[in-house]
Amino acid sequence: MNLKHCLLCALTLSTAACGADEKKDPGVPPPPKPAEELQQLKFFNGTWNCEGKTQDDGSTPGYEFKSTLQVAPYLDNYWIEMKYEEHTSKTNPYGFKSYGRVGWDGTKQKFVRLHTASQGAWETALSPGFVDSKLVWTGDLNNLGNPEPVPFRHTFEKKSDTLLNTSFELQVEGVWKLIQVETCKK
């Protein structure tokens, strides 16, 4: 590297320009590879079109809805991105959107899920992965107008490579209450 090149690097404060003709430091190890466990979830990749129904809870009538789930690898295959949308309709005038990431926690040896949603909700959840044909997430749902997080359970059941059933439950006063079910096709 000549003096003119060093001066140019100093003036532009560009580490990229300074190291452009340098070799990678052999003393710095490369980053780890994406977790092999994420391959279990490859089944989800793609666009799923779903039809679902919420449960009548006594104060709010149940309703049918249509939704879309889009799943793709994210951040160099270290995470999986999930975009979910319940479409607006006469019976579902506000719709619902959720956006999240799924990854692998090597310390806990579990999948981790981080989601944010329309209407201000957010969640964290863990899953051991598929057991038989079911992937069950358990975690806490926050900011639903409750002062405390609400435990939830979200089950995905693989029926075939192109068919998936889901159920979403909340724990209310220690009892699991079914909130909604869906059937999704790819």
Automatic annotation (TrEMBL):
Entry keyword Signal: yes
Keyword Signal: yes
InterPro entries: DUF1579
Highest taxon of source: Bacteria
Region forming the signal peptide: 1-19
Keywords, alphabetical: Signal
Record protein name field: Lipoprotein
